[in-house]
Specification:
By secondary structure, the chain is α+β, with helices and mostly antiparallel strands. It contains one helix and ten strands. The strands form two sheets. The chain has a five-stranded antiparallel beta sheet, with no helix packed on it. A five-stranded antiparallel beta sheet has the order 6-7-8-9-10, with no helix packed on it. β6 and β7 form a beta hairpin. The longest helix is centred in the first third of the chain and has 21 residues. The N terminus is likely disordered.
Length: about 140
């Protein structure tokens, strides 16, 4: 077979690989390489994209802590290192999720420093080192741990 055939096959395979990588939704696992070093900032969406969370260690955007929000209903929760959280309801409580954050598949955990968030179909539960924290979902925000 001529070079023309192999060149066309290589181009076709490259295009398929490229399209496949674009269509595959990124997922984050516990100890994701993006989120393993204290002093970093990480975020994620739930698969429904209704919940977004951010974990901050090292003071990048203020005190170490976790911030999560739901678009529907509009609500948010902010948690400190001790697992103490404050909730807020209404559109004025929402911010913009960081661009380019990954999706955290149901059943997976993203951990950074003393913080850990578990994505489940029923909502996202975030806790601090002592196991205290909150669960946020369409049903509201509740104490966890």
């Amino acid at each position: 077979m001529g070079n023309e055939f192999w060149r066309g096959l290589r181009i076709g395979a490259t295009a398929i690989a490229l399209v496949g990588s674009v269509l595959t939704a990124p997922s984050a696992l516990a100890d994701d390489s993006v989120c393993t070093t204290v002093g970093q900032y990480c975020g994620f969406y739930s698969p429904s994209r209704n919940i977004s969370c951010e974990i901050n260690t090292g003071g990048r955007v203020g005190q170490d802590g976790v911030y999560c929000q739901t678009g529907s209903p509009p609500q948010s929760a902010t948690m400190d290192n001790s697992g103490t959280f404050q909730s807020c309801s209404g559109v004025s409580c929402l911010g913009d999720a960081a661009p380019g954050i990954p999706m955290l598949a149901y059943g997976k955990t993203m951990a950074l420093g003393q913080f850990k968030c578990l994505s489940e179909e029923s909502g996202v539960t975030c806790t601090a080192a002592g196991g205290r924290g909150f669960t946020i979902s369409r049903s509201g925000i509740a104490t966890a741990g």
